[in-house]
From TrEMBL:
Protein name per Swiss-Prot or TrEMBL: 2,3-dihydroxybenzoate-2,3-dehydrogenase
InterPro entries documented for this protein: DHB_DH (IPR003560), NAD(P)-bd_dom_sf (IPR036291), SDR_fam (IPR002347)
Enzyme Commission code: 1.3.1.28
Record-level Gene Ontology MF annotations: 2,3-dihydro-2,3-dihydroxybenzoate dehydrogenase activity; oxidoreductase activity, acting on the CH-OH group of donors, NAD or NADP as acceptor
Sorted UniProt keywords: Oxidoreductase
Family: Belongs to the short-chain dehydrogenases/reductases (SDR) family.
An example Gene Ontology biological process: siderophore biosynthetic process
Superkingdom of origin: Bacteria
Matching Pfam families: adh_short
EC primary class: oxidoreductase
Length: 102
């Protein structure tokens, strides 16, 4: 597919599925911004924004700034995730909220 000229945001883009997704959009011609709590490398083939998607105020601030700069968002991929080890029925309410609800 051709995503030339499209603005794409990918959460969890620092590594794993999020990184692979962001890279695929770059290769398809999109202007990609990747979001993550931290980025392991110094350089990525897309713009990066350090952001915790579980922090609603931070998300609102970053999104407002980026939308003012780009004027539109064409694609949003939510690949951010967190893993809590243990049986699902034994997760604390806080762990459940963070894992499944962001």
């Amino acid at each position: 597919m051709d995503f030339s000229g499209k603005n794409v945001w990918v959460t969890g883009a620092g590594k794993g599925i999020g990184y692979a997704t962001a890279l695929a959009f770059v290769e398809a011609g999109a202007k990609v911004t990747g979001f993550d709590q931290a980025f392991a490398q110094e350089q990525y083939p897309f713009a990066t924004e350090v952001m915790d998607v579980a922090d609603a105020a931070q998300v609102a601030q970053v999104c407002q700034r980026l939308l003012a700069e780009t004027e539109r968002l064409d694609v949003l991929v939510n690949a951010a995730g967190i893993l809590r080890m243990g049986a699902t029925d034994q997760l604390s309410k806080e762990d459940w909220q963070q894992t499944f609800c962001g």
